[in-house]
Design goal:
Elements: H1 2-29, E1 35-38, E2 44-45, H2 63-72, E3 78-82, E4 89-94, E5 99-105, H3 106-112
Antiparallel strand pairs: 1-2, 1-5, 3-4, 4-5
């Protein structure tokens, strides 16, 4: 009976680990081409525009990476996912840096014709 319990426990751990990595996969596979910043007028601009704010913004690929970098630098960072059916987006707020940005996936920007040339 003890051997079967340990096998059951091992399978549970394997399943939990698999689910954990399955949930992380969409976040880690996103690249800069998948995300745009949303401007005041609703237009989509490349993430590279953030590089003007400082070198710590160079090479950003996603809103989650921005939040991670800001937290690692010691800033309180808020992230909020907006799941509107027509325009899902992710908002990142870093009050101490006066940084409030909205991200949108490229397919939504392109579908709406909002991308800046």
């Amino acid at each position: 009976m003890g051997k079967q319990d340990s096998q059951t426990g091992a399978m549970r751990i394997i399943k939990q680990t698999f689910l954990f990595f399955l949930l992380l996969t969409p976040l880690s596979s996103a690249d800069a081409a998948d995300w745009f910043l949303v401007g005041k007028e609703g237009e989509c601009t490349p993430l590279s525009i953030l590089e003007k704010k400082g070198p710590e913004f160079k090479g950003l690929e996603s809103p989650y990476q921005l939040a991670e970098k800001m937290r690692a630098a010691g800033y309180k960072t808020e992230i909020k996912e907006h799941n509107a059916a027509s325009r899902p987006s992710v908002e990142v707020r870093v009050p101490d840096r006066q940084l409030y940005v909205m991200f949108m996936k490229a397919d939504v920007c392109n579908k709406k014709g909002l991308s800046k040339p």
